[in-house]
User: What shape does this take?
Amino acid sequence: MNDVAIAVEALRRVIISEPGYRLAWVARDGAEAVEQCGRDTPDLILMDLMMPVMDGAEATRRIMSLSPCPILIVTAGVESYSAKVFEALGSGALDAVQTPLLVKGGQATGSAALKFKIGEIERLGSSLRNQKRLGKDERKEPPPVPRTSDCLIAMGASAGGPAALAKVLSGLPRDFPAALVIVQHVDSQFAPSLASWLNETSAVSVRVARHRDQPQPNTALIAATNGHLQFANSCCLGYTAEPRDSFYHPSIDVFFRSVVRHWKGRAAAVLLTGMGRDGAMGLKAMREAGCLTIAQDAGSCVVYGMPKAAAELDAAASILPLHEIASSLNRFVCASGGEARGGK
Assistant: This one.
């Protein structure tokens, strides 16, 4: 859905250049997109953000409520409209990519990235029909927690993750004594904007993870490259291209398993809304290592894919609605024992 004729033509040329792809319809604004999707739900919607009548974030929210289907945000203003990008991702859009540009000769630059994203969504499988959109609930301020040491919260999320992460992080107190590390499926170009957006909405400090960073209390570090974030040793984070055959870069499974291998203190892992199975095996490994493991429940997920896979593996000690996860993490940090893991 895009109201700029040149952008529409660039998208059209990318679609028709691929065998097996067909352009079903074009909407000139968000309201028309919602209406068209209700009449003829496609296999994938390419959604712009800044449109007349109704913007792409609101159109995404309504489509996921009324006639759910996979949505890919295609926008030219990633940095300028980062809040809208993450609002749309939080409402159920699966990913975001830059709009291709038409150049001399009629070719569309940036088409490779768009084609890759379309193919990635196609490989992930089925549509999102019958999935519930993220529910809204009252925010409750948690009680202050005592300061502890060597405590890590590992979190993984995909589709719908930005809003879910914002909900969890906003439920933690400003003096939260545990360190947090987050792997969210998002292109590296969006990671700094995601960190800034979450930092503005959260009590804890949020920034991108740098190579050789050490997790710190009251700070959330977010994977920020298309490589895998992992623990290189017992205290330092690093990025690696291996395993190259992993479908997701960065991979939640890779990070969770590195926690099992290297982290010496107490640890908890949270697997939030997302499409696919990434994180499920890693969550199981963390549970088997004695960590607290939490998966988001079906009713509060935008996409009940990754948490469902974890539940099927019995990887989650607790399956909780989104609004209860922050409180559970606070209780974990407060506990003197419980599901704490011994050092290696």
Remarks:
- The chain has two domains: 5-124, 151-334.
- The chain has a mean pLDDT of 84.
